[in-house]
TrEMBL record:
GO cellular component terms attached to this protein's record: membrane
Entry's transmembrane regions: 48-69, 109-132, 138-156, 177-195, 201-224
Keywords: Membrane, Transmembrane, Transmembrane helix
Principal location listed in the UniProt entry: membrane
Protein name: Mechanosensitive ion channel
Residues in Mechanosensitive ion channel MscS domain copies: 227-287
Natural source organism: Halobellus limi
Subcellular location: Membrane
Keyword Nucleotide-binding on entry: no
């Protein structure tokens, strides 16, 4: 019994199990098998698929980084404070966003669009062969056109606010139209520039803008003819000063002491009454400077 066991042991040493050599580590052998399988799997997948995956990852990361940098840069230069109160900013706030975030999102979509086109190129899609070159040229133009349009709307809103504040002291019902006209003029110019970025023929729109400006000046001259006459008369009075503050004058039936002279009107006070006389009336009726 003992002799047969010894012979079996010697036989096993002399003829080892196939696949396992003397001193071979089973764990190392298993890793080699797994690596060979992974290598085979990698070789089985076309190379353009791996290239497309790399482009996708790089595009997503670039879109996130560039969009975030754009938003932070606009915030750092003070854009949110500069456009506070504009109609575009209020509309953006209603959707729980802001103008700078909209521009950051626009940058992200632009980068993602470039990424999508790059994937089509890497994948050798036949439809994208001729489409790629034209789209690469058009996509930046579309991006800049969108940015110009948004900036034009925001600047137009800001111009409306500034012009409205400057004209607050003028008590004329027609004066309220000027802030809106200024806003739409800026937006119209922004639309022209945006369309020119897209290669759209804008000659007709430029002619229309010239007609619009001419009509604006012509109608303004008609609507504010009295104001313009008073302004012209006020310029003469301020330059030549036929009377000054403290002089006693008589304009038509109004007599009193001059309290103030500005571009449009002259303030005359007498016995607790203050007369605000348009400067055009001063020219039409003349003045009498009283010397006592």
């Amino acid at each position: 019994m003992t002799g047969s066991l010894m012979r079996a042991t010697v036989a096993s040493v002399a003829h080892p199990t196939p696949g396992l050599g003397v001193g071979t580590n089973p764990v190392t052998t298993g890793l080699q098998v797994d690596l060979s399988r992974l290598t085979g799997l990698f070789d089985a997948v076309p190379q353009w698929v791996w290239a497309a995956l790399i482009v996708v990852v790089a595009g997503i990361v670039a879109a996130f980084v560039l969009g975030t940098l754009t938003t932070r840069l606009l915030i750092r230069v003070g854009i949110p404070e500069a456009i506070e109160g504009t109609a575009f900013e209020r509309t953006a706030r209603e959707f729980d966003t802001s103008t700078v975030e909209v521009l950051g999102t626009l940058v992200r979509f632009f980068v993602l669009g470039i990424t999508f086109l790059a994937i089509l190129s890497v994948a050798h899609v036949t439809v994208a062969a001729s489409f790629w070159s034209r789209t690469v040229e058009f996509l930046p133009q579309l991006f800049f056109a969108a940015v110009i349009l948004i900036v034009g709307i925001v600047v137009g809103d800001k111009v409306q606010i500034v012009v409205g504040e400057r004209l607050t002291g003028i008590k004329l019902p027609q004066i309220g139209i000027f802030p809106r006209l200024a806003k739409f003029t800026v937006i119209y110019v922004a639309v022209l520039v945006a369309l020119s970025q897209l290669g759209v023929a804008t000659l007709a729109l430029v002619v229309l803008l010239a007609v619009y400006l001419f009509a604006l000046v012509f109608l303004s001259a008609i609507a504010f003819s009295d104001l313009l006459k008073s302004g012209a008369a006020g310029s003469y009075l301020l330059l030549n000063q036929p009377y000054a503050i403290g002089d006693e004058i008589e304009i038509g039936e109004k007599r009193g002491i001059v309290q103030e002279v500005n571009l449009f009107v002259t303030h005359v006070e007498n016995d607790g009454e203050e007369f605000i006389v348009p400067n055009s009336t001063v020219f039409e009726e003349g003045i009498v400077r009283i010397r006592e």
